[in-house]
Amino acid sequence: MSESLAAKAAALDAADELAGARGLFALDDAVYLDGNSLGALPAHVPDRIADVVRRQWGQLRIRSWTEGDWWTAPERIGDRIAPLVGAAPGQIVVGDSTSVNVFKAVVGAVRLTADPARTDVLVDATTFPTDGYIAESAARMTGRRIVPVAPGELAGALGPATAAVLLNHVDYRSGRLHDLPSLTAAVHEAGALAVWDLCHSAGALPVGLDAHGVDLAVGCTYKYLNGGPGAPAYLYVAHRHQAAFDTPLPGWTSHRDPFAMTPGYAAADGAVRGRVGTPDILSMLALEAALDVWDGVSVDTVRAKSLALTDFFLECVAAYVPAGAVTSLTPAAHAERGSQVALSCADAPRVMDELIARGVIGDLRRPDVLRFGFTPLYVGFADAERAARVLGEVLSEVRAEMPAEVAAERP
Ligand SMILES: Cc1ncc(COP(=O)(O)O)c(C=O)c1O
Ligand SMILES: Nc1c(O)cccc1C(=O)C[C@H](N)C(=O)O
C-alpha cells in the first residue's frame, strides 16, 4: 500500500461533509462500487416496509388506499424526487419501469409535436438497449422512423424532420456525461422535443430539468436513489406540455375520476396523467422511505464529492495498476464525467470475479468493461484507494499468467 495515497484518502475522508451519511446504509466490509446498478439498502427501510406490510396491509387493509395515502403515492413520491432533478412540484409521477416510461415519453413527445412532416425520432446510438428497443417500437406505432445518432453528432442530425430526440444524460457503459443544457437547446432550435433518460445521473449530479427546459424525462430509482431492486421508475412531463400530453397508456388511475369507472376516458390534469394501473405499493413505499437519506443533502455537494472520488480513484489506478493494463473509457474532463469509472482490460470477466472475491464489488459489461460506480452518500476515499489497490494486485497476477506477447499488446 502506498502510504501517501492511504494518508491522502484518510485526510479526504476526514474532511468529507457527507461522511456521516454512510451510517444510514446497511453495508459490510466490502467496497461497494455497484450503486450505479443497484443502490445499497438504507438501514431504516426494512422497518418501514414491515409497518407497511403488518399494519397498513395486515390491519388497515383496504382503508390504507385512503387513510394510509397509498392512492396518492405516485405523485407524492414524484414530488420527493423533483428537487433532486431540478423540477418544481407537480411534474413527476412514479410508477412502472423505466422501459414503460420511455414508451410513454417517446409516444407522448411525438404526439405533442403533432406534425406528420416530422418523421424522425433520433435516439442515442450508444444507449442502454431497452431505450433503443422501446423507441423503435414507439416510432413504428406512431408512423415515424428511428434514426440512431451518437450524442456528439446530434447537432448535424437535427432538422425539420426531427420529431423527438431520446438521449441518456450519462452513458451506462462509459460513464460519459452528455451536455444536457446545450443538447436540449439544439433540439428545441430544430423545433423538436427532448426526452432524457436520467437513470445514471439522478442522485449523482445536478440535472436541472426545469432550468434547461427539458420536455420529458424518465429515470429509474434503484441506482443512486437507492429505492431497491425493481423499484418503480418515474416520468417527468414539463408543466407546459401537461395539458396536451396524450399518454399511449391511458390506464384507469390516470383518469380524471377513476372511481366513476365510466367507459369513456377523460385524462386527469397534471403529472397524474402519466399514471397507468394500480401502483406497486410495497416497492413504492420502500422507495419513499429510502428517499429520507436525502433530507438536508445538497445535490451540488454530492456532485463535488463524486468528482473528487472519481479523480482520486483514477489517481490511485495510475499509481497501483501496471502501466498499460487498463484503458479508461470515462472522460477525464469533469464536464463529461458522470459518477462511474469504466476501465477496459484483457480478461475482464476474470478480473471482475477476482475483485468481487476480494471484497471489491463492481460489475462487468461484456466483453471487456469493468464498471465502478461511486455513490457519494456511502462510498469514501479509503474505499476508492482500496479498490484501486486490489485492482492493481489482481491485474498484476492476471498479467503474470498471460503469454508475454499477449500482455504487451493488450491494454
Ligand atoms: C439508461 C438506462 N435506461 C433504462 C434502464 C433499465 O430500465 P428498466 O428499469 O425498465 O429495467 C437502465 C438499467 O437497467 C439504464 O441504465
Ligand atoms: N436493472 C438491473 C437489473 O434488474 C439487473 C441487473 C442490472 C440492472 C441494471 O440496472 C443494469 C444497469 N442499468 C446498467 O447500467 O447496466
Note down, in words, how this protein is organized.
The chain is α/β, with parallel strands linked by helices. It has 2 domains: 3-18 and 297-409, Alpha-Beta Complex (Aspartate Aminotransferase, domain 1); 47-294, Type I PLP-dependent aspartate aminotransferase-like (Major domain) (Aspartate Aminotransferase, domain 2, 3-Layer(aba) Sandwich). The protein has helices at 3-14, 45-60, 73-81, 98-113, 129-141, 154-157, 180-189, 239-242, 281-290, 299-320, 348-357, 381-401, 404-409, and strands at residues 31-32, 92-94, 120-124, 145-149, 162-168, 193-197, 216-219, 234-237, 327-328, 340-344, 360-361, 363-365, 369-373. β12 and β13 (369-373) form a beta hairpin. The longest helix has 22 residues, at 299-320. The model has no long low-confidence stretch (mean pLDDT 96). Bound molecules: pyridoxal-5'-phosphate and (2S)-2-amino-4-(2-amino-3-hydroxyphenyl)-4-oxobutanoic acid (3DJ). Residues 37, 128, 172, 199 line the site of (2S)-2-amino-4-(2-amino-3-hydroxyphenyl)-4-oxobutanoic acid.
Write a brief structural summary.
This protein is of the alpha/beta class. It has helices at 3-14, 45-60, 73-81, 98-113, 129-141, 154-157, 180-189, 239-242, 281-290, 299-320, 348-357, 381-401, 404-409; strands at 31-32, 92-94, 120-124, 145-149, 162-168, 193-197, 216-219, 234-237, 327-328, 340-344, 360-361, 363-365, 369-373. The chain contains 13 helices and 13 strands.
SSE layout and pairing:
Layout (H helix, E strand, L loop, with lengths): L2 H12 L16 E2 L12 H16 L12 H9 L10 E3 L3 H16 L6 E5 L4 H13 L3 E5 L4 H4 L4 E7 L11 H10 L3 E5 L18 E4 L14 E4 L1 H4 L38 H10 L8 H22 L6 E2 L11 E5 L3 H10 L2 E2 L1 E3 L3 E5 L7 H21 L2 H6 L2
Parallel strand pairs: 1-11, 3-4, 3-5, 5-6, 6-7
Antiparallel strand pairs: 2-8, 7-8, 9-10, 10-13, 12-13
Helix pairs in contact: 1-12, 2-9, 3-9, 4-5, 10-12, 11-12
Bound molecules: pyridoxal-5'-phosphate (PLP) and (2S)-2-amino-4-(2-amino-3-hydroxyphenyl)-4-oxobutanoic acid (3DJ).
Pyridoxal-5'-phosphate binds next to α4 and α5.
